[in-house]
Protein: Bifunctional o-acetylhomoserine/o-acetylserine sulfhydrylase
Amino acid sequence: MTETPTPSDAHEFGFSTEQVHAGYLGEGGYGARITPLYLSAGFIFDDFEHAKARFAGTDLGYVYSRINNPTNAAVEKVLADLEHGVGATLVGSGQAAATVSLLSVLKAGDHFLSAPSIYEGTRALFRGNFARFGIEVEFVENPNDPDDWHRRVRDNTRLFFGEAIPNPKNDLIDIEAIATAAHEHDVPFAIDSTVPTPYLLRPIDYGADIVFHSTSKFLAGHGNSIGGVVIDAGRFDWAAHPDKYPHLHQPIVEDDADGVTWIDKFGAKANFAFARAVVAGRFGTSLSPFNAFLVQQGVETLSLRLERHTRNALAIATWLEQQPEVASVDYPGLPSNPFHALAQKYYPRGAGSVFAFTLSGGEEAAKALYDAVEVFTRMTHIGDVRSLILHPPTTTHSKLSQAERDRAGIHPGLIRLSVGIEDVEDLLADLDRAFRVLRGETPPSLRGEGGDAELTPADGL
Ligand SMILES: *Cc1c(COP(=O)(O)O)cnc(C)c1O
Structure:
């Protein structure tokens, strides 16, 4: 008789192997190698008892695509595995992921702490929408000083939040220190890990309890769809805190006074189950299986793309630092950067590919450079295979006050790049040409005489 292998005997597969194999959940009997795209709103019940069992949860089959769908389930499985989580829920956008992650924990009357450098859409969600629900956010000033978190904790503080690689400034947070501080106050630490992706960082390994992503960025990777995902570490001890998280200690079936609670039924996965069924399921944040399929395709090449993205980003940041017009480059992969030590600790595979640099010539210089590029696309997005360029002070960060922008280091000459996977020589040639325009020169177009006109599709017809 052969012994059942124990987990320690099992071979540990690498990231690239997992990204292509971990999500396969079988298919409909045709031998398809990829989990197919199941565009079906509902799923057939064989008979009366079958329908009843699906609703009771004693049969875990599919019911309705707002709640679960086989295409989405395959993507949820691979993302949970890659993040070392116990479960994942796909949602309609990164904003929906932030909403579901935090509203599963917080209720009216609660207070939570956030690191100061976060996505502007998330900041607006916290300050505007959450405030209307009676949930109060407070921003710490120095996120890497645990005392700054400690001294702001109140009786009603229920969660700490931060963003792994904030952009445009790349002012990295010390994830382990913040998770430790949160746990000293018996509250979970939630993190937006969109920019690193699990290939560069697994926040759960450093103590994070809830991880979310905008899959619109590197995970889908090709700039084709909006989506989000929430992943639960399954480690926070919700059972120990009925005072702080009473909803998980209440019956799952609301009118059942002595019923089974979320903690009784799901244990450490109680928050995951509640977030999925009650928050995502009822607010109706579900991701279309079509978009889930696009995420599945993207995830299969995540490691390959991220290797190229980060290698290109380091080369470009190094080049930018040498240009006389550049006052500073916010890329922690550079040894000169104040966050370099944190980058070495958390991002040994590369410090991402979304960063800013500041031109000493201010907005006018930024405008000249921005309008001169030919390979970089002028667009507000990140994590695309294509390289993108943006002027945050007049776009993503234009709603902040001047004082807020100054405090965040978003100066008028700041430009953000999301470095793509093109040949780095071409990206450097594009920037070199744009810098020559900035210097008042008139270099020829990289596309030769006539520029873009040569690419007109009707040519020759
Ligand atoms: C884009 C982004 C979001 C929001 O995601 P959407 O898919 O656009 O809703 C949240 N956090 C970060 C870091 C992002 O880059």
